[in-house]
Write a structure and sequence with these properties.
Blueprint: H1 16-23, H2 27-37, E1 47-48, E2 72-79, E3 83-84, E4 88-91, H3 102-106, E5 109-111, E6 114-118, E7 124-127, H4 129-142, H5 150-163, E8 175-184, E9 196-206, E10 217-222, H6 246-254, E11 259-264, E12 269-273, E13 276-283, E14 290-294, H7 305-318, E15 324-327, H8 332-340, E16 344-351, E17 355-364, E18 367-370, H9 381-394, E19 403-405
Parallel strand pairs: 1-4, 10-11, 10-17, 14-15
Antiparallel strand pairs: 2-3, 2-4, 2-9, 5-8, 6-7, 6-8, 7-19, 8-9, 11-12, 12-13, 13-14, 13-16, 16-17, 17-18
Helix pairs in contact: 4-5
Bound molecules: pyridoxal-5'-phosphate (PLP).
Pyridoxal-5'-phosphate (PLP) binds next to strand 13 and helix 7.
InterPro entries: Aminotrans_IV, Aminotrans_IV_CS, Aminotransferase-like, B_amino_transII, BCAT-like_C, BCAT-like_N, BCAT_family
Family: Belongs to the class-IV pyridoxal-phosphate-dependent aminotransferase family.
EC number: 2.6.1.42
Length: 408
């Protein structure tokens, strides 16, 4: 049906069989061919237009996540014909887009979430930015948006972050949240690969996720709605994955829960918590050995940078304390059994916003499964350690290859 909506497309003039072929599998091929002949991001072509009306800084204790933005934005336009055009930093401003732009109709949108931190010497640091760029390229490629040179983009983001330095508070816990976003801008109702796109980065100063210390959250195990499925796009940061999760989140909130614990399948595999990866620490039923478990990257799980950092740190530091670190599918029943048998040590979500979010309990099949925290405890031992270890590398207290120092 929708194919008939593409009367102006060059493809339409071709024979039906050719049209089908171009429509289906060779898409990735044609995008690669474009990339080879068109230009990639060129940071040397950056132009900077500074604002003439600098914003007042919001007092640190009044910062709300994603509410206020800095003075400028970084933008790059792309066309199928020319590739990536010259990058620009301009005053933060509205976009002007044709109402037929494909982003509004078919959700050609993907994004990233990363942070810039200020260290004790006043240097700005990014945390594992290469991972964010690689993930963004995977997301964009999946929805036929262009890919780009991640290293070139890190250079541009660095220049942008440096320009917005005054918005980055130097206290621990504070940072500048960076939101790289890519949208398809082609004016067409035809369902096909966008012939033009816009990649932009905006920035929002953020305070600590837990200003008064950890607060453990309560989850509702969600089985009536599914966040992601095999062969789907749950492992990509596409905007289209998030809007459908809000209604179940409101439902859970109505019953007094902070987040959904997304289950999958008849087995009720634990996948993710809200928009964070999920970790469970329990003692092995047979051996009694302590295990830190998280779901494997099977296509339904977002490849979290924090998830990877937690796993790396656990393998580096917890294994020698006798822990076993395991990426495998864990069912909700397994978790509930471990809780009932006193083997569940703790559970937490992991993501850039909070680093770790300790879980107090999970509502499941009308019962409340207790996740092992004492009543006066807001976080377990592993969550506490992980937050410290990761922050030490984010803020450069521990010099580490994960931290990228923005050149002055
Ligand atoms: C962004 C995101 C995460 C966490 O990824 P980080 O890179 O650690 O911030 C986890 N799950 C979902 C669904 C996400 O969108």
């Amino acid at each position: 049906m929708l194919r008939q909506l593409r009367p102006r497309s060059a493809l339409f003039k071709q024979s039906p069989s050719r049209l089908l072929a171009a429509w289906e599998s060779p898409r990735a091929y044609s995008i690669k061919a474009d990339a080879a002949t068109t230009q990639d991001i060129d940071p040397s072509k950056l132009s900077i237009t500074k604002t003439t009306t600098p914003k007042d800084l919001v007092p640190q204790n009044e910062l709300v996540f994603g509410r206020t933005f800095t003075d400028h934005m970084l933008s790059l336009e792309w066309t199928a014909k020319e590739g990536w055009l010259a990058p620009r930093i301009t005053p933060y401003q509205n976009l002007s887009l044709d109402p037929a732009s494909c982003v509004f109709h078919y959700a050609f949108e993907c994004f990233e979430g990363m942070k810039a931190y200020k260290d004790s010497k006043g240097q700005i640091r990014l945390f594992r930015p290469k991972n964010n760029m690689e993930r963004m390229n995977k997301s964009s490629a999946r929805i036929a948006l262009p890919t780009f040179d991640g290293a070139a983009m890190i250079q541009l983001i660095s220049k942008f972050a440096a320009l917005e330095e005054r918005f980055i508070p130097s206290e621990k816990g504070y940072s500048l949240y960076l939101r790289p976003t890519m949208i398809g801008t082609q004016r067409t109702l035809g369902v096909g690969p966008p012939g033009s796109a816009l990649l932009y980065v905006i920035a929002s100063p953020v305070g600590p996720y837990y200003p008064t210390g950890f607060k453990a959250i309560s989850l509702e195990a969600t089985d009536y709605a599914v966040r992601a499925w095999p062969g789907g796009v749950g492992d990509k940061k596409l905007g289209a994955n998030y809007a459908p999760c809000i209604l179940p989140q409101l439902e859970a909130a109505k019953r007094g829960f902070h987040q959904n614990l997304w289950l999958f399948g008849e087995e009720e595999f634990i996948t993710e918590v809200g928009t964070m990866n999920m970790f469970v620490a329990m003692k092995n039923k047979e051996t009694g050995q302590k295990e830190l478990l998280t779901a494997p990257l099977d296509g339904t799980i977002l490849e979290g940078v924090t998830r990877d950092s937690v796993l790396s740190l656990a393998r580096e530091k917890l294994v020698k304390e006798g822990w076993n670190i395991v990426e495998r599918k864990v069912t909700m029943k397994e978790l509930a059994d471990a809780a009932a048998e006193g083997r569940l040590l703790e559970a937490f979500g992991a993501g850039t916003a909070a680093i770790v979010a300790p879980v107090r309990n999970i509502s499941w099949k009308g019962k409340l499964v207790d996740c092992g925290l004492k009543p006066d405890e807001e976080a377990g031992e592993v969550a506490l350690k992980m937050k410290d270890w990761i922050e030490a590398r984010q803020y450069g207290d521990e010099e580490h290859e994960w931290s990228y120092v923005v050149p002055k």
